[in-house]
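To whoever is on call:

I kicked off a structure prediction for a single chain this morning and the downstream step that reads the tokens threw a length-mismatch warning. I double-checked the sequence; it's 205 residues and nothing unusual in it as far as I can see. Pasting both halves so you can look.
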Amino acid sequence: MVSESYKSLISMNKILLSLSFLFTILVFKTGFCQDYAAELSKHREKYMVETHGRFPDQKQDFYEANERFKIIATYKKPRKPKTISVPTSGVKIKDYTEFAVVSFMVDGKKHKIMTYRPSPVLPLYKNLVFVPFKDPTAPQETYGGGRYMDMDTEDFKDGNVIIDFNKAYNPYCAFSDGWNCPIPPKENHLKVKIEAGEKVPLNGH
């Protein structure tokens, strides 16, 4: 017959193992968060230097890094990709070819966004995947004309892709008039608030 003290010892060991496991997960997650925040900060610093070089009087603003919006998603490429003519904020029309429909989850709800390739594809941007979108944070928190993300064709592998809205950025039109900025197609007007990435400039234009 197993003594009560032995049972208590077994129970205590189980509790300690569970606590140890939870602590390991917490340490791993904390370290991952710190690494990601550092990586995103470096990405933003480079972007801000480039933007400041073109728009020296502008003051940029961003949401805090939010891993809720760095999402492991799925994608499906259309059998017959369509090339569409996209109106811009200026006088030009720009052509883009459908690349893949990305499906992702936010707060338990499924959303879709279309990604595009410039048409024609220029050698300098041979791997560029362009993602124009707009969401309900506009125009109060983010630019009313929508935002963009740049991805790489190599990001799309075996039906999976990571879509990181923390790297969403403003078109030039958010900083100055006179640009031909592609207007996000209606199919990329998301119903979920994307509280990540770049906000409206602090001093407008």
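Update from on-call: the warning came from a stale cache, not from the record. Cleared it. Sanity check on the structure: The chain has one helix and seven strands.
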